[in-house]
Amino acid sequence: MTTPTPIPAPIRAHAAPGINELARRCVGCGFCLSACPTYDLLRDERDSPRGRIRLMTDMMNNAHVSARTVTHLDRCLGCLACAAACPSGVDYPNLINQARAHIHTHHRRPLIQRAWRFLLTWVLTRPSLARPLLLFGTPLRTLHRLKALPAGLRAAIQSLPTHVPPPSPIDGGHTFHVKQPRGHVALLSGCIQQVLAPQINAATLRLLHRRGFTVTTVKGCCGALPHHLGMKNAATGHMSKLLKSLREQKFDAVIYTASGCGGTLADAPHLVPSSRADWLAHNVHHITPFLAAHPLEPDAPKPAAPRIPPITYHCPCSMRNTLKQEETAPHLLRQAGIITQTPKKAPACCGSAGIYHILQPEIAHALREQTRAAIDQTSGKIIVSDNIGCLSFLAEENAKTLHTAQLLDWAESGTKPT
């Protein structure tokens, strides 16, 4: 099998340095301020990466975790635009992950907050629970207008989909063979994506088949949602189950489609120190760069070029700052003959950020409006992205959203996505 282009995601050491040691690299230059969406919006030093690092070190040097510190660290999107802008190489992802884990262990949030966070991470990481609850909740979407409801609950109701598609027969535990395979890959079914948009995995399977790969779909959540909230035990539990599922067969690579999972999958050795986790971190690939490294064979059958309207590509912050693959999808789409535009002057993050848009709805919706305004300045008829969170959050009734894999499948097969 041809070795795919490696994804430069941040793979941590098993024994990560502590917050104080990591924070010493910050020289306070302020380059991060202009890159940070929350600082740009709120203009509060404590809501900048530099200010948050100071709050983290104060927190570690004091026995008490103040509510003020928790508020400002909770407002961090985790978009990592600051890490990309930092000239000193501050490992901000490690800093914010450790700080949130410390808060989760040493700070007692109000009961409603604790229950809400637990419920969201428990349900959204388990498709068997998420599907029936979303089916039940979808008719209640209009209730988000009730001002008497808590802001977080209104945001959760507003984010409910207008339609929950039926489950896909391909997700979880099935192997799809090809004649004369060039390799055998695992396709992670994921958690909430397979409920909201199972057609993404179906399109990915077809793309991989055309390139000669036998594909086994693997159930399991990587634990990104709880990991980004500091719930290390829950994240470790999910990762352990996923690693166990991947042990059942020998794979040449592991493929995922939600770019927001990339950092956590690369963090596997830090969550579950083991040789298998090391293997995963070095062999896991988002579908888009994997396709770039494995183009169709020159003699592969091609349909008549379908009439695909111009599209606008929204690059997720996880694609840009974690995976370092900002230009990969636009290049593939243009190579497929699709008129592709990218918005100018969009914020570094659309505001979705996992469940951030539910926990911090005011900031998230302000960033969403900025992002949509930038997208509206283009002439694209379809919004395309590489992350289910962005696609769901940016969706509107008059705007179609598709994953990059769906659009490439359309270009290669001639069949329009439903």
List the helices and strands and how they pair.
Layout: H1 19-23, H2 37-42, H3 49-60, H4 67-74, H5 81-85, H6 92-106, H7 111-124, H8 127-137, H9 151-158, E1 175-176, E2 183-188, H10 193-196, H11 198-210, E3 213-218, H12 224-228, H13 232-246, E4 253-256, H14 262-266, H15 268-271, H16 275-283, E5 284-286, H17 287-293, E6 311-313, H18 317-322, H19 328-335, E7 340-341, H20 356-359, H21 361-376, E8 382-385, H22 388-394, E9 400-403, H23 404-413
Parallel strand pairs: 2-3, 2-4, 4-5, 6-7, 6-8, 8-9
Antiparallel strand pairs: 1-3
Output mean pLDDT: 90
Q: What would you call the structural class?
A: alpha/beta
Helix count? Answer: 23
Strand order of the largest sheet: 1-3-2-4-5
Distance from N terminus to C terminus (CA atoms, Å) equals 33 Å
Beta-strand level of the residues, as a percent range?
5-15%
Overall 3D shape = globular
* Tally of DSSP β-strands: 9
